[in-house]
Design goal:
mainly beta; Immunoglobulin-like; six-stranded antiparallel β-sheet; 11 helices; about 15% helix; about 35% strand; globular; disordered N terminus
Length: about 725
């Protein structure tokens, strides 16, 4: 089946000339709330400054929830209006805000999104909504050619808090805004269709510029200008053949009347991961933890030509392996460490590997790998969508690389409980136990979602004061994983008035005890956005993983600000307990309205490489049934995934940081090291890794993990040319 990518690049589509846009610089910032802070005359000179494209918690306001204000000072030049064709409206673009805002320009309210606690509707968050407010240029409160003040009042009900997701700016709404540029790319072919649409009722004249650049060799392949007259409410189409390789397609439309430009840049997906061979290869975790008496379920992940025949030597009594599927089931009563030998054969050859089973109190001895419904389906998740994704996980071969958890996020719960307070599922999930049995029969694990508060983030029933009952229900359904999301517990926490760390840990301790008494293992994922330095105490409540940040978005700003700020947490990761910087944002994502990820191919290689170095849980967030070859390549590189699943369980450390690149190093069980060389800049960059600088010996063998290719021995250093926002991911050993 052909997979088409429709790309509108909303985050980078309007690249206007500098004089036609006011980029709002770092604003003055304060926590708290005072209505006078909206006034233009208010003196904010003693406030602190803050970056407006990153949430406030990682900028020195940890665990702060509540009100805060941003004040931007800027000059509003009359040339902004003079240079426009349509002269009636200013656009104030604020990217996204966690959670609700009211925005004032020179003291006048110009917009609001979400709802504040004191409002009639009560608190309503809108963290995932783009803020764009319009102001008539004839408004008397505008101060042309003078200083103006944009004041943004924010209420954060939980999470990272504040502005994020892009740089705020002010410009004129103009004729160029009626032009949309869209790409349609058939992934199996190197042909791209450019679609230029006129959304106004008049002709629009302009020039279309097309450029294809071979990024690796810094060579221009195509440079073409096309004059266009776009008819009212019509589209024009241009088909472009793009050569194989790391190609960048640049498209821009220059509108004739104003000279303003709308443009986009598209990097063609390029596949690095070699296809698996016919000979069996055993993948995934080499170690597995289970509690005494709990049901054991593990599918041996193997690539190779099917059919495959599985055999396990020294398998302890109480366990059995299905020779045709490689699914190990049963129960173990005695604590201890059991070393087994897995052998897989087919008509092309044989593979063997040691597999260790540890019966004790620790689960998740390597980071969980699987799928979660939220980044794709949001609250529209259903049993059918879970089944289709699970079947695709198997049919597309991802289960053969170690992906095993199928986790339902928010949206499965009924709005009310039964008469005895038991939780039950809504009409989208008619039989949870049957769904669990179906997944387990295929060797997959079953995950679910709840909140310690009265309601989940989506407004469904939380587990407050029903923890044991809910844990009993989950166990009866065959649940293997619980994501426990703070959400409405913030109101409980404030009402009880106890601000100690113990009070903050309390809801997670309560569910910890409820899970502990269950007759089956349930991996415990703490989702509370890194508040109160959860990495310092998450293991005390038996957390197998804990979110270290707010929700991730499919943008470079979100990915880089989250991923590259995990460096101080490396000492808290260990087998059974993992730092979690949130789910993967590759493939078709969209939180209920799926679209192709806005990350470039290079940014996606960075994403997977960095998450593997960080020993993060790997939870796919896209619609697996619509997985294209490029995304499959990202998720099926066994050498890359092996870095994440390494038995030693150490998180990578950042060993070098400059303004434009970073180098991260992870120690591996066999004495080798995985190194990620990340280019955070906008152009190709040559980076040298000097062995002595990082305490590495003179002569090291280097392997390219994405290409699964030995590069040879390198004395003293390793030099690589790294793509913008891209990575060189290597493994070194003597």
């Amino acid at each position: 089946m052909k997979i088409f990518l429709f790309l509108s690049f909303l985050c980078i589509a309007s690249l206007l000339q500098a004089q036609d846009k006011i980029i709002l610089a770092d604003p003055e910032f304060i926590t708290g709330n005072n209505d006078h802070w909206k006034d233009i005359s208010f003196d904010d000179s003693k406030w602190k400054t803050i970056r407006p494209n990153i949430l406030w918690e990682p900028q020195g306001y940890p665990d702060y929830n509540g009100y805060a204000w941003y004040r931007f000072h800027f000059r509003l030049p009359s040339s902004l209006k003079d240079n426009s064709f349509l002269k009636d409206s200013l656009r104030i673009f604020l990217a996204k805000i966690d959670d609700a805002d009211e925005t004032f320009l020179n003291g006048e309210k110009i917009g609001a999104t979400g709802s504040m606690p004191e409002d009639k509707e009560g608190y309503i968050g809108a963290y995932n909504v783009t803020r764009e407010y319009h102001v008539a240029t004839a408004s008397k409160f505008l101060r042309w050619d003078k200083e103006n003040v944009l004041a943004v009042k924010v209420y954060d009900g939980g999470g990272g808090g504040g502005m994020y997701g892009g740089h705020p700016y002010i410009d004129m709404i103009d004729i160029i805004d009626a032009i949309s540029l869209t790409l349609q790319h058939a992934v199996e072919k190197n042909e791209v269709s450019v679609i230029i649409t006129n959304q106004l009722g008049i002709n629009i004249n302009g020039n279309l510029h097309l450029q294809i650049k071979d990024r690796k060799n810094n060579r221009t392949i195509l440079n073409k200008n096309i004059s266009l007259v776009l008819s009212p409410l019509k589209s024009a189409y241009k088909n472009i053949e793009v050569p194989e390789g790391e190609m960048e397609l640049s498209i821009s439309f220059k509108e004739k009347n104003t000279g303003k430009i709308k443009s986009l840049v598209y990097v063609m997906p390029y596949i690095l991961t070699p296809l698996p061979g016919d000979v069996p290869r055993i993948n995934g975790a080499k170690i597995f933890g289970v509690r005494p008496g709990s049901p054991f379920l593990f599918k041996i992940p193997v690539t190779g030509k099917k059919p495959l025949l599985y055999h396990v030597d020294n398998l302890p009594a109480g366990l059995q392996v299905d020779a045709a599927t490689g699914i190990i089931t049963g129960t173990l009563s005695n604590r201890g460490e059991y070393k087994t030998q897995v052998t897989v054969t087919n008509n092309a050859g044989k593979a063997a590997r040691e597999f260790t089973i540890i019966v004790g109190e620790h689960l998740s001895l390597t980071p969980p790998m699987g799928w979660n419904s939220w980044n794709c389906w949001g609250l529209s998740v259903s049993a059918e969508k879970v089944k289709s994704s699970a079947q695709a996980l198997i049919d597309k071969g991802l289960a053969d690389h170690g992906w095993s958890f199928m986790n339902i996020d928010d949206g499965w719960e009924a709005e009310k409980r039964s008469a005895d307070s038991s939780i039950y599922a809504n009409e989208k999930f008619p039989d949870m136990k049957d769904l669990g049995n179906w997944l387990h029969a295929k060797g997959l694990k079953f995950g679910i979602y709840s909140s310690p508060g009265t309601q989940t983030c989506g407004g469904y029933s939380g587990s407050y004061k029903n923890e044991v009952s809910d844990a009993n229900t989950y166990s009866g359904w065959g649940i293997d994983y619980l994501k426990y999301d703070w959400c409405s517990y913030d109101e409980v926490y404030k009402k009880e008035g106890d601000t100690t760390l113990a009070a903050y840990m309390k809801p997670y301790r309560v569910m910890q005890q409820a899970l502990k008494i269950q007759p089956r293992d349930i991996n415990y994922s703490l989702c509370q956005y890194g508040m109160k330095d959860v990495w310092k105490w998450g293991n005390q409540v038996s957390g197998n993983s804990w979110r270290t940040t707010g929700d991730i978005e499919d943008t470079w700003e979100s990915l880089s600000s989250i991923g590259f700020n995990q460096d101080k947490l490396f000492s808290y990761a260990a087998p059974g307990h993992w730092n979690d910087p949130d789910m993967l944002i590759v493939g078709q994502v969209g939180w209920g309205k799926p679209h192709p990820t806005r990350l470039t191919p290079d940014e996606q290689y960075t994403h997977i490489s960095l998450w593997c170095l960080l020993s993060s849980p790997l939870l796919i967030g896209c619609d697996i049934s619509k997985l294209d070859d490029f995304t499959l390549n990202l998720l099926s590189n066994d050498e890359v995934l092996a870095v994440n699943q390494d038995v030693l369980g150490k998180q990578a450390r950042r060993i070098k940081r400059t303004a434009t690149y970073q180098i991260w190093l992870k120690e591996l069980e066999d004495g080798s090291k995985a190194i990620g060389i990340f280019n955070l800049g906008e152009t190709y960059q040559t980076v040298s890794v000097n062995w002595h600088e990082f305490g590495i010996s003179d002569n090291e063998k280097v392997r390219d993990l994405w290409r699964q290719k030995d590069l040879g021995f390198f004395k003293n250093n390793f030099i690589s040319n790294v793509a913008p926002h891209g990575v060189k991911f290597i493994k070194i050993w003597k």
